[in-house]
Design goal:
It is a single chain. It contains 17 helices and 24 strands. It is of the alpha/beta class. Among the domains are: about 100 residues, Periplasmic binding protein-like II (D-Maltodextrin-Binding Protein, domain 2, 3-Layer(aba) Sandwich), CATH 3.40.190; about 110 residues, Rossmann fold, CATH 3.40.50; about 100 residues, Rossmann fold (3-Layer(aba) Sandwich). Helix 1 packs across helix 7. It starts with a strand and ends with a helix. About 40% of the residues are buried.
């Protein structure tokens, strides 16, 4: 006999959409019947002020908690980021659903992009202190405008439709919303039809997590039920079928950090954790008690990064061009840079892809044929935030970045159902890179090449004295090891993206760092 359960949910379009998706998945997994019970919460009723300015807490959960405890519903579904750090003792989390996206996304009218060089103030509608803080302080660097002097943030409340409509009504120059909510709306035919009307004439920018980390637990759904039921754990076992262990591990770390900062909807710190292979990437940014927070670190729960101990400060090779060493400010006494490899552009290359993935500044010359102001059929993505900012300086609107996490991150963005509403039939990807690059995602158009300088004896001896080598590309590694094979057995390091994956395939003993900054911190710790 099929069991029958009631799911408590808020009544907004997003809440109903995501609860319906949970309902349908539970019915598929269990064969039971689940129905929705709409419950109004205080947070839904208060729309004229930001919640962080109000007294109280649990604005989106209190009424749902009461309904569950009183037995009016059997389970409830929450956006996990809405749950407070302290939950009623009668209630337990039965499952945390798989999180596909956690990013924030900025929406803007195409016609506004054409006017950016005429503007001095850029006004963004948003609803959280962390977004306000990070957008005000850092977003100007991602705008393709030489005239904007200030990014201003204005409180924006209401459901997704209301917020996007206010953008369409020119109350803001742009709005920032959570991509996971938009993704769920785009996954339902009914809500997708409403979204399609709203985003007509708009385009987007997916905000990089390294610069604009999302809210703790953003993108995950928490399914709760009572601790003590009279069904011998039957419902709990059924709900656990929807649990995703990786997401649970990620958001548990985010919420732990959230609590350590004091928690609450007033917290002006974005916190994102993402599992990559055996490691967890941590990104925190914002302001806490007047202190600037900017944390990027790689957690190694299995102690795979057994960093060597040195009796004296080791000599370090860093794979940046020797001519950049004056710009590379680090208080470390024994550094050597790349004097061997130089990069040269390949002129006359053309490309036809609708989606362009730009891997470095050495690709920029190949973008001359793009009309920066009018070609909204092109979607530009960058490999990292520096390349993204540099493209913005040149006047390009960049839609997103792999955040130096490799092509897997690009694939995720291209697979987004919400973002595909903008792409339409434009799905061809072209990767602009160097002549020795390859990709599993698409063809590579080589727009620059590497040339090798002569290896003199002094520089060779300099390399042989190095104890640690930090590589910026797999190609660079192969060049150096072919010429100086003795360095292969030294200590090697690199970023967590494509270079790390390629070196692993070659069975190189390589230790990843989340960023060059984290590697710098490591050097400081052993100096």
């Amino acid at each position: 006999m099929r069991a029958h359960y009631k799911i408590g949910t808020r009544g907004s379009l997003l809440a109903l959409t995501q609860c319906t998706q949970v309902k349908e998945e539970l019915e598929r997994l269990t064969g039971d019947v689940f129905e929705l019970e709409i419950i109004k919460t205080q947070g839904d009723l208060i729309t004229n002020a930001p919640l962080w300015q109000l007294d109280g807490k649990d604005f989106f959960t209190r009424e749902l908690d009461h309904a569950l405890i009183e037995g009016k519903v059997d389970l409830v579904v929450h956006s996990y980021k809405d749950l407070g750090s302290v939950r009623p003792e009668e209630i337990q989390i039965a499952a945390i659903t798989k999180r596909s996206y956690a990013h924030d996304v900025l929406l803007i009218k195409k016609e506004t992009i054409l006017k950016l060089n005429e503007m001095k103030v850029f006004k963004i509608g948003t609803s959280s202190p962390r977004r306000m803080t990070n957008l005000k302080n850092h977003f100007k660097n991602y705008l393709p405008s030489h005239s904007i002097e200030e990014v201003e943030t204005v409180v924006l409340r209401g459901n997704v439709n209301t917020r996007v409509q206010k953008l369409c009504d020119d109350e803001f120059d742009a709005v920032v919303l959570a991509l996971p909510g938009l993704e769920r709306l785009a996954s339902s035919e009914k809500s997708k039809l409403e979204l399609e009307k709203l985003i007509d004439g708009l385009t987007f920018m997916v905000l990089p997590q390294t610069e604009f980390p999302s809210a703790a637990a953003q993108g995950a759904l928490a399914i709760e039920c009572l601790q003590k039921r009279t069904d011998n754990g039957a419902l709990l076992e059924k709900l656990s079928k929807m649990n995703d262990q990786i997401t649970r591990e990620e958001v548990s770390r985010e919420r732990k950090a959230f609590a350590a900062y004091g928690g609450g909807c007033h917290l002006a710190v974005g916190i994102h954790v993402e599992k990559r292979g055996d490691f967890f990437c941590h990104f925190h940014r914002g302001l806490h008690e007047e202190n600037t927070i900017h944390l990027q670190t790689l957690e190694d729960p299995n102690s795979l990064r057994n960093l060597p101990e040195f009796l004296a400060p080791p000599k370090v090779f860093i794979g940046l061009a020797d001519k950049k060493k004056e710009k590379y400010k680090i208080n470390y006494p024994k550094l050597t840079f790349d004097k061997l490899v130089t990069k040269h552009v390949v002129p006359g290359k053309t490309f036809f892809g609708d989606h362009l993935y730009i891997t470095s500044k050495y690709c920029f010359h190949a973008l001359d044929s793009i009309n920066k102001n009018h070609d909204f059929k092109k979607f530009i993505f960058a490999a990292g935030t520096k390349t993204m900012r540099d493209l913005s300086t040149l006047g390009f609107w960049v839609h997103g970045t792999s955040d130096s996490l490799g092509e897997e991150e690009l694939k995720r963005l291209r697979d987004s159902k919400f973002l595909n509403m903008f792409y339409g039939n434009n799905t061809a990807l072209e990767i602009l890179s160097h002549d020795k690059s390859s990709s599993s995602l698409a063809d590579v158009t080589p727009v620059y090449t590497h040339l090798l300088n002569d290896l003199n004896e002094d520089y060779k001896n300099d390399l042989l004295e190095c104890d640690i080598f930090y590589w910026t590309s797999f190609t660079q590694y192969t060049f150096f090891v072919n010429l100086v094979p003795e360095i292969k057995n030294k200590f090697h390091a690199c970023g967590i993206g494509k270079t790390y994956q390629q070196l692993k395939k070659e069975n190189v003993k390589i230790l990843p760092f989340l960023s060059m900054k984290e590697f710098e911190n490591y050097l400081q710790s052993i100096n």
